[in-house]
Specification:
Largest sheet of chain A: 9 strands, mixed
Number of strands of chain A: 17
Shape of chain A: globular
Structural class of chain A: alpha/beta
CATH architecture of the largest domain in chain A: Alpha-Beta Barrel
Oligomer: homodimer
Helix content of chain A: 25-40%
Distance between the termini of chain A: 32 Å
CATH topology of the largest domain in chain A: TIM Barrel
Strand content of chain A: 15-25%
Chain lengths: 398, 398
């Protein structure tokens, strides 16, 4: 059949996948242009704010003994990971194997993969990656998987770097205490695995409202991990890495014995979810980092402009995450991205009259999955496009 | 600065953007393989079911006088749009300009863009597209925009095909009645615009539970549009197109005078949202079309397999849409994709024991935004990969 033949044709497919971006997205056309002239929806990062965020986390942690290992699942962008390394990161974290690969293949030398690889296919792929890139570190959270990693590393004749993921809230990791200890000992005994330490991410604490409440909760959640680390230490295991925490808890970990680095991701961009958690100095708004990431959206229908504006940025441009996107400069706007293709703004109060064609600038609800919708981020300085950042690991959820 | 130089480098960027898919995604490696060996999360379509869905909508509408103009925002895949044309579609709909462009540039001859282009940049781009592709039809929903379209078409020396979008539920479109009539007359008088008819999409009715309730609601919602069409008809306007409806209401439009075609999208794939609306023959489950689209996910943690399984498919693989993904063959599983990178399955009852490495097959909550997360859809026949369908318009939300 003609149709099946078309679908099967490898040659045709290769040609289609290599199709260049259309003319208007070529950097030479857009560099130097005003951001207000970009085709929308457009994902933008304010480079001044980004650079201040990049520096702020190091300034804040300077002298605490806690290092920074940023999580690239937030931006999926090797150019930003390289900036993080230049700013003083120990390495980066990645969530998935294909995401790790994109980083390692694009100039990011140190990648700790926080997820596990459990299938034969993925383990083989991970070991090939480790053979090529000595800076690749893998997580493990069960004994069968540790045996599989050992076998695959032995088959390739390599020694692979491994951290044990310790469970904090029942999502990933080996149970704290003896199970995690036994697993670390197993890794330590495995001739083709090199135990580098542990990983323990406390997800639920990141968005607890209020700095003091957040600190109390994460220290309590991490207590079993600290005890587990002490068991491992007493057993003479290597604990060069004790990695955890995120943008909500990065400044609370220096009291944990042996803690080495924070896996901050959102600090670079910020989003509505993190703005709402409150900080040490301001209980209502988290001000440690600036909102550098925005989406530009255009008003496409204004039949009742005093009540409602329709834009071209719906859930395919912003995701369904809550709280809703915030329109910069318009606290009286409530933005709904429930519709796939349309944004619906309920207008309680407006600073000016809006009409079709006007552009709104939005802070995104949750940065990680929003960035994952776009092929490029426009780097903006002032109001001008200075750079175009390809989101090379976009869609790399394998 | 070194870093800025790197980001600015157009040459380096071109190279990165053209980076080929990694070896394991090359079709020659995967064609003929079992779907259960695919790297996960993987988006799959069962080709037998897809082909039956493709035929079913035509069979059902045969003899009613209502045609089919499928909406490609669902699949964003020119190969599937070409199959829809071969199956007898009058043309396809697309939501956005870049999506329309990908279709027209990849062998889909007739594209009706249901969204509007309101900025200078987009209007110029749309007119260039119309000059190149005579099968491109644009929507308009306000008088200023109609003037801008006329000016841009005149500047290029072309006549552009236009439909008037008539508002049904306050999201897009000109108000029904005299405003829509005046707009259609304005288009009709514009020397460089060709009025082709009207468009009226009734979004909220698509997911009303129960066939009878759905029909009553959509006929009521469409009544002002029908009256508007009569005004236009009396004014001697061309109404060759009267397009609307979707997968939930495709079989209810033949009583509307002059109605020409349904903009079905989800019928090809189905999803949990549509399964729940109920059909004419079964009030609980909508059975007009089969669930052809699935995501494969791997169990990556099973510390408490009687209560909970963790998978590698979270919101970046499934979106946050509700109702939750359904695990095929396991009605006792409740799937939560709230976490960006992880799926969390609450196990009330299981048909068998599950362990790390097992693969689950999921019906997605809402097909359109889920497909928009993936670069390719694997075409599956039986359990084997038969074809790889590039989602070429993925991320084309501009």
């Amino acid at each position: 059949m003609n149709r099946r033949h078309l679908l099967r044709s490898g040659a045709a497919l290769g040609g289609l996948l290599a199709m260049p971006l259309r003319a208007s997205l070529r950097p030479e056309d857009l560099i130097g242009k005003s951001k207000w002239d970009l085709d929308t929806p457009a994902l933008c990062v304010d480079l001044d704010k980004l650079e201040r965020n990049l520096a702020a986390v190091h300034t804040r942690l300077d002298g605490t003994g806690v290092g920074v290992r940023p999580h690239v699942k937030t931006h999926k962008c090797p150019a930003l990971a390289r900036m993080q390394m230049e700013a003083g990161a120990l390495g980066v974290c990645a969530a998935k194997l294909t995401e790790s690969e994109v980083m390692l293949e694009n100039g990011v030398p140190e990648v700790l993969m926080t997820g596990v690889n459990v299938t034969k296919r993925k383990i083989a792929h991970a070991m090939e990656l480790r053979r090529k890139h000595p800076g690749f570190i893998q997580a493990v959270d069960n004994e069968t998987n540790a045996r599989d990693l050992q076998d695959a590393a032995a088959a390739l004749g390599i020694v692979a770097d491994v951290v044990v993921d310790v469970d904090v809230f029942g999502r990933s990791g080996a149970p704290a205490g003896k199970p995690a200890l036994r697993l670390a000992q197993q890794v330590d005994r495995s001739p083709n695995l090199e135990l580098r330490g542990i990983l323990a991410y406390d997800g639920p604490s990141q968005h607890v409202h209020g700095h003091a409440a957040r600190k109390a909760r994460t220290l309590e959640a991490m207590a079993p991990v600290v005890e587990t680390r002490e068991l491992m230490d007493a057993a003479g295991l290597n604990l060069g890495i004790f990695s955890g925490a995120g943008t909500g808890t990065y400044d609370m970990m220096d009291t944990l014995p042996g803690f080495t680095d924070v896996q901050v991701g959102s600090y670079l961009f910020m989003d509505c979810q993190y703005l709402d958690i409150g900080g040490a100095d301001n209980d209502e708004v988290y001000e440690d980092f600036e909102s550098s990431l925005t989406v530009l959206a255009t008003v496409i229908n204004a039949n009742s402009p005093q009540e409602k504006l329709i834009t071209d940025a719906g859930s395919k441009a912003l995701t369904l995450n809550q709280p809703p996107a915030r329109v910069i400069g318009e606290p009286g706007f409530v933005y709904a991205a429930r519709s796939d293709e349309y944004g619906i703004v309920t207008v309680a109060d407006a600073s000016r009259d809006y009409k079709v064609g006007d552009v709104l600038e939005l802070i995104v609800p949750h940065c990680d999955p929003a960035v994952n919708l776009y092929d490029v981020i426009f780097g903006i300085r002032g109001d001008r496009v200075e750079s175009i950042l390809p989101v090379l690991a976009r869609g790399k959820s394998q």
